[in-house]
């Protein structure tokens, strides 16, 4: 891997554009040092340069690639694919395709990012219709990667295995865990539980041809317990689990806030306990876990939340840098090749039956 | 409906047996008055009578039906079906089958209760393989009924409509809401979102032949918001959503507790705010929402959590009484009949195509 790592940024994406993207670059450098990392900023040159000057960003660490064209946050994927060529989002991806940059980060429109990434970079995993989205889920034991959380609605056993391979490589690269453990999300831990797709995926993972550290089936409450490092599920179930958890967290925060402001005595207690409550909040701070990679593409693409702060965007950059520095792409490619062989040999009748 | 309402109880079910079941009867009478309600207690006469004496339960309100036989909490459903005849669980259900009692409450083994209920009472809904389980979900606006949360793994559009019909009648009976609103759980609100089964169910509900108040698709975070009164989903997704929410709630409680005991200052603050924190806890108190009916049977069956307290069991009794007193069974039966007609007329080719 050539030095320095070059990260391609869609500077116009997200709800805030250059202030958050350029601010994210500064935040990343502050926290992690800028050594060996440079940035390509795609978008309006004047706006980006003004922001870089205001934030006193070292001119050595970045280069601006001007374009007037922007994919709007509410643009439909089909329209973005037709009209998006030459936009900051498209150009950011093209820089990875051309081998110039090592990874892309964008806070833009998710649908458009998925569609244009697929068009420009192509899928590396045969079975996947669309890139898989990973959620980094705070747990009692750290962070668990959950995928897919929304892109691939109907998944067969092969797709679930592709998620397992990509999720394992992602978690190892970003969290420095040597051999992440993997669980399949299901309604119980016994072998006969769940629908056919998840049971078949379980059988294939137990056979262990791929060399993954497979723990078995896990249930919904195992996610927040941190029972495994990587939780694999289809995009329908994963999306509903993620949004249900977000809804539950918001519900509890709301009733906690209501309780702690319900009278003078409660308010006094809350004020005294405030530093501790703030520490608690930081454990579920969205900006500390911002940055969800789109997995399964021929290239590293990290999606930042559209409303992320500069600190949040800086975290998405960190994830892109960690992935680019690691052997993530090579590992995924090797394991997907082994999966292909496994599926093909399972489809070929064994010699005895043709003799 | 004859007076009094007779509730058939499996007195030996659950982790605690008679103390919780008889305690639940006392708790129900204390809170709601015992007028017009009597209880049949199935199980070990000596143990039940001792408990009733200890709790000074009025001999007028209950009758004991002795049996030595008990279905164990860890007994497999198939084994329970083979060997369970004459057990407290089986006899409690037989009393409803015979038309003697109006509803059953059991804190026993869920798998055995489902299997024996189906065997004794039979399914009323054609499409259902097993009874559907309803979760009463605390929300910002009260309580939302979510079903199925675990029994029917693969569901087609017809089954989802059966859940909508049963969930609506249940919510109306137990929460006194005249016309509960219904949402289908999905990954987005647009018509083209989700897999074929949920889209087809959405089309059928929008057509509104059943006269339900259909709101549209809802997402995971809509459950805790209380966007609709009844959330309909397949048993796989529903089970994972419910357990993910429980896991999230436990995770937040754990980090809140850790924060509030992290030092002297935090502890003092927590102590002062304690009454408010207790009020908050009562809003998510499991015993206040204990009691999940098994829907789709020819009879009212309410499952109590195996580890429920007497107060929790009393709440499950309240749900059984509310269902028995309402027009729930008649309404479900009428609507399932209309659904059958609708499905049959959809399956019959229209006259033009045969002319």
Q: Estimate the mean pLDDT confidence of chain A.
A: 89
| Overall domain count of chain A | 2
Quaternary: homodimer
Secondary structural class of chain A: alpha/beta
Major sheet description of chain A: 11 strands, mixed
Please, what is the CATH homologous superfamily of the largest domain in chain A? Isopropylmalate Dehydrogenase
CA-to-CA gap between the ends of chain A? 49 Å
Rg over C-alpha atoms of chain A, rounded to the nearest angstrom: 22 Å
Specify the CATH architecture of the largest domain in chain A.
3-Layer(aba) Sandwich
- How many β strands of chain A by DSSP? 11
Could you name the CATH class of the largest domain in chain A?
Alpha Beta
The share of residues in extended strands of chain A comes to: 15-25%
Overall morphology of chain A: globular
What is the strand arrangement across the widest sheet of chain A? Answer: 3-2-1-4-11-10-5-6-9-7-8
Order of helices and strands of chain A: EHEHEHHEHEEHEHEHEHHHEEHHH
CATH fold assignment of the largest domain in chain A: Isopropylmalate Dehydrogenase
Helix run count of chain A: 14
Helix content of chain A: 40-55%
Function (chains A, B): Catalyzes the reversible formation of acyl-phosphate (acyl-PO(4)) from acyl-[acyl-carrier-protein] (acyl-ACP). This enzyme utilizes acyl-ACP as fatty acyl donor, but not acyl-CoA.
GO molecular function, one term (chains A, B): acyltransferase activity
Catalytic activity (chains A, B): a fatty acyl-[ACP] + phosphate = an acyl phosphate + holo-[ACP]
EC number (chains A, B): 2.3.1.274
